[in-house]
Amino acid sequence: MPLEARQAPVLRPILTKAEDDALSCGPDAAAPPAGELSSSETARRLFRQFRYQVMSGPHETLKQLRKLCFQWLQPEVHTKEQILEILMLEQFLTILPGEIQMWVRRQCPGSGEEAVTLVESLKGDPQRLWQW
Fold this sequence. Notes:
By secondary structure, the protein is mainly α. It contains six helices and no strands. It has two domains: 66 residues, DNA breaking-rejoining enzymes (DNA breaking-rejoining enzymes fold, Orthogonal Bundle); 54 residues, Orthogonal Bundle (DNA breaking-rejoining enzymes fold). It is elongated and about 50 Å long. The relative contact order is 0.12.
C-alpha cells in the first residue's frame, strides 16, 4: 500500500472510570465525548497518553505528537509564560499524593499558585478530602 494511502490512526485515550473522574473538573464533571478536543484537559490527556505507532513510523508519530501538543498548549493563543504555567501546574498536580491530587484536580485550579492554596487549605481540615 502506498504511504499516502495510509490514514493516520484515530487517537483516543483509554481511561478507566476512576481516571476519568479524577481528571475532570468540578464536583459533577463528566468527561467530554471520546475524540472531542473541546477542552484543554482532553487535549492534555490525548497528548500524554499517545503511544508510538509502529505502523505509522517515526515521522508520522512525531507529526501526530506535535499536533496533539499544539492542541493542548495552543501556542498561537498562549504566551510563553502561560505555557510555562500550564506545564508547571500539570507537573505540580502530578507529584501530589493520590488523594490530594484527585481533590485538587476536581477544584480546577487555574494556576500553580491556586493549586498550592488549595493544598494548603487541606492542612487545617484533612477530612475535606473525603467529602467529595
